[in-house]
TrEMBL record:
Keywords: Carboxypeptidase, Cell membrane, Cell shape, Cell wall biogenesis/degradation, Glycosyltransferase, Hydrolase, Membrane, Multifunctional enzyme, Peptidoglycan synthesis, Protease, Transferase, Transmembrane, Transmembrane helix. The lineage of its organism: Bacteria, Pseudomonadati, Bacteroidota, Bacteroidia, Bacteroidales. The chain crosses the membrane at residues 51-75. This is Transglycosylase domain-containing protein. It holds the Pfam family Transgly. It catalyses: Preferential cleavage: (Ac)2-L-Lys-D-Ala-|-D-Ala. Also transpeptidation of peptidyl-alanyl moieties that are N-acyl substituents of D-alanine; [GlcNAc-(1->4)-Mur2Ac(oyl-L-Ala-gamma-D-Glu-L-Lys-D-Ala-D-Ala)](n)-di-trans,octa-cis-undecaprenyl diphosphate + beta-D-GlcNAc-(1->4)-Mur2Ac(oyl-L-Ala-gamma-D-Glu-L-Lys-D-Ala-D-Ala)-di-trans,octa-cis-undecaprenyl diphosphate = [GlcNAc-(1->4)-Mur2Ac(oyl-L-Ala-gamma-D-Glu-L-Lys-D-Ala-D-Ala)](n+1)-di-trans,octa-cis-undecaprenyl diphosphate + di-trans,octa-cis-undecaprenyl diphosphate + H(+). It is found in: Cell membrane. The keyword RNA-binding does not apply. In the N-terminal section; belongs to the glycosyltransferase 51 family. In the C-terminal section; belongs to the transpeptidase family. Residues 461-706 form the Penicillin-binding protein transpeptidase domain. Pathway: Cell wall biogenesis; peptidoglycan biosynthesis. InterPro entries: Beta-lactam/transpept-like (IPR012338), Glyco_trans_51 (IPR001264), Glycosyltr_51/Transpeptidase (IPR050396), Lysozyme-like_dom_sf (IPR023346), PBP_transglycosylase (IPR036950), PCN-bd_Tpept (IPR001460). Residues 100-286 form the Glycosyl transferase family domain.
Amino acid sequence: MVKQRNMKKYILYLTQFLRKTSRRLLKAGKQAIQWYVRTFRKLPWYGRTGMAILTGICSLIVLLIMIDLNFLWLFGKSPSMFNIKEPIQHIASEIYSADGKLIGKFYSENRTPVEYKDISPILIKTLVYTEDERFYKHFGIDFEGVFAAAKDYVAHGDARGASTITQQLVKNLFKVRSQYSTGLLGYIPGVKLLIMKAKEWVTAVKIEMLYSKEDILTMYFNTVDFGSNAFGIKTACHTYFNTTPDKVTVEQAATLIGLLKATTYYNPRINPKNSLSRRNVVLGKLYEHHFLNKHQLDSIRQLPTILKFRQESYNTGLALYFREAVANELKSWCKENDIDLYGDGLKIYTTVDSRMQRYAEEAVNRQMQEVQKKFDAHWGTQAPWRDRSGEEIPHFIEDLAERTPAYQYLSHKYGSQTDSIFYYLNQPHRCKVFDYQLGQKDTTFSTMDSIRYMERFMHCGFVAIAPHTGEVKAWVGDINFQSWKYDKVLSKRQPGSTFKLFVYAEAMNQGLSPCDLRVDENIPWEVEEKGEKKLWMPHNANGGATLDTMSLKMAFAQSVNTIAANVAHEVGIHQIATTARKMGIRTPLEETPALSLGASDVSLLELVSAYGTVVNDGEAIRPILITRVEDKDGHVIYEEKPEKTQAIPYASAYLMQQMLRGGLTCPRGTSQALWRFRIFDKGTEFGGKTGTSSNHSDAWFVGVSPNLVGGAWVGGEYRSIHFRTGELGQGSRTALPVFGYFMEKVLADPKLAPLYVAKFPQPKEKLDRSWDCNDYYPHYSDSDSIYMALGDSLRFEGEEDLPSIE
C-alpha cells in the first residue's frame, strides 16, 4: 500500500512538472517569435533579406542535427561516428551443394585495396573534374551544385546530379537509402526521400570531419562499382585494360570514369559506341579545366578504345555454369530487396549434389572427347561449316572475325582497306585456346586461325533433375567454362524427335492408348506460307513410308516421323503446343505442322523438366536451383516455394511412362544403345527418347528413371557446324552416352545408389487402356546377357531428320 501511494505521488509530481515546463516553453517560444517579428519589421529590406537567409541556414542546421539524433524517433537511425570510423567490409557470399559442400563463392571485394599513392593523378583529376569539380572546396555538400540543380529543375523540369564524391561514397559504404530506417515521418509520401537525402548530407559532413580529401578519394576508388563485376579501381583497371591504377593513360581513365554514370549503358565491352561517346565527354571536362590542351584533346578523341578485357570471375571448381545460373536466379530478388549478392555474406543453399555434379562433368568430358575425335576424323581438313546442301559456307570465318575486337580496332585504323585488315588478322601472335588435356593451352595463332580452331569443337549441355521435387541435381553448361560462357542448358535449339513426347501425351489425353494401331504412310498437310498454299509432307529418316501397321508404342520407340505427324494431325497442333506449355516448355512455340517433329526451339532445361512431368505422374514442377538463402547472421531471408501444377491427367502420364520404356524394350527402339551401360544390374528401370534435328545440327537424348531424369544435347556452336550425314551425328550416338556414363557413376556410388535404384510403380488406379504391347524381351534382366542376346539389334538405329515444305 505504501509503495502504491508513493508511486501515485511520483506520477502526480511528474505530471505537474511536465505541465509547468511545457507552459514555460510555450511562453518562451511565443516571446521569441514576437521578438523576431518586431525585429524583422524594423529592419530595412536588405536587413530583412539577410535575416531571412540566416534564419534559413540556422533552421537547416537545427533540422540536420535533429535528423542525425533521430529526435523523438521521427527520422530513423543514421550512421554513427563509430560506423564511419569502422565501415562495414563486404563479405563473400558462399554457395553450398545439397550434400553440404562449399562449391563456390560470390564476392565483390576480390581485389587488393590501393593506397592514394598507387592511384595515378590522371585518374584523380579525371574523377574530380567529371563528378565533383568543387570537391576540394566543399565539406561534403556542394550547395552551389544543389542550387544549380534546383534552378535547372524549375526552369527545365530536369535536374542535374548534385551529389558530391563524398555523398556517393556514403551511398557505397552505408546504403543509407536501404539499410537505415526513416522513422515515423518516413511514412509521409515525399518526406522519406528528403530524410534520406538529409542523412546523406549529415554523413558526408561527418566523413569530411574524420578523413582528409586524399582518404576520401582513396575510399571512393576502392568501393565504387565499375560494372562487369569489377569493384574497385584496381580490379577495373585489370578487367578492362590489363593494367594498374598507377599506369593508366588519359583515354583509359576517361573511359573508366565515364562509365560510372551508368555501368551498363556506358560499358565499353557491352556498348562500345556509348562508351566512346561518354569518354569523349569526359575528355572535354579535362580540356575545360586545362588538364589537356586543344591539340591533345583532338588527338586523344581520335583514338579507339582498345580493351584487353579480362573479367575476374569464378572460373575454378565445380558447377561453374550452375553457379552463374544461381546468380541470375537471385538477381531480381536481390534488386527488389536491395541485397548485394557479392558483399552481404549470404549463405546460398542449392539443390545440386556435388558428387552427381562431378559425375556429370566427367561424363560430358569423356563422351565429348570421343565425339570430337570422330568429328575431326569425319571432316579431316575440310571445313565443317556447311549449308543445307552440304556446301561449305563462304566467308563463314571472315564473318565471325568481323565481330571480334581485333577487327573493330583494325577497321577503325584502316577504314575500308580490307586487305590491310585481314593481313594483320592473319599475323600469328601468342594466345590461349581450349585443349581437352590442358584445359587451356598457350599457343601461337593468328586471329583467323584461332577462330577456325575454336569453331571446330563440338559442344554439349547436360542437366539432371529429381522429377518428384523439381530439384536440379547436376548441371553442365558446356565443355569448358573459361572458353565458352554461353550456357547450353539454357540455349534454344531444335529438339527433333524428343518433342514427340508432347504429341503422344496429347494423344493419350484424347483417349488413345500405346497399343492403338496406325499405318506408316505419308499424309500431306496443306499449309499456308506467305499467302501461298503449299503441301507439307513428313518423311522418315530412311526416306519413304513402309505402309506397315504398328502400335503407337512401337512408332514412338522407333521414332517414326510419319505416324507422329499423322497423330499430330488427329489431335491438333494447337492442343499439342498447349500441352507442351503445361508440362514445362516456356519458350514460345511456332504452331506449324513441323512442330510435331521438333522444329521449334526449346532449351534443354525445360525439355528435361517436361519429361520429369511424365515421371511425376503428370504434375509439373518448375526447376528448382535454390532451396534457401540465409543472411550473414544465419537468418533465413529467402526460401524456395515450388510451383506445382497438374499438367496432364495421371492416366496420360502413366501411359507415357510405358511409351518411354518402349525405346529400350521394343524392336529397333532408338534408345536401345543404353543397354550397353552397366546401369541395370541393381534393378533400376529406364526409359528414354532420342532426337536429331535438321542436318544433324542438334543431337538429343532424355533418359528417365523413377527418381531421376537427365538429358543431354550435343552440337556445334552454330547450327551450320555438324556431321555431314549418317549415324555419327545421331542422338543415340552422341548424346545418349553422356546419360549412360553419368548413371553408371551415380548407381555405382554406395551413398547415391539407394536414392536412385527403383522400378516404375504399378498403376495407382484402374486404367481402361492397354499398354503392354510390342515388348521384345523380358523386362530388365541382366544387362550383359541382354546385350549378348540382342547382338546386332543394338546398333544405332535410324534417327530422324526434319522434313521440308514441298
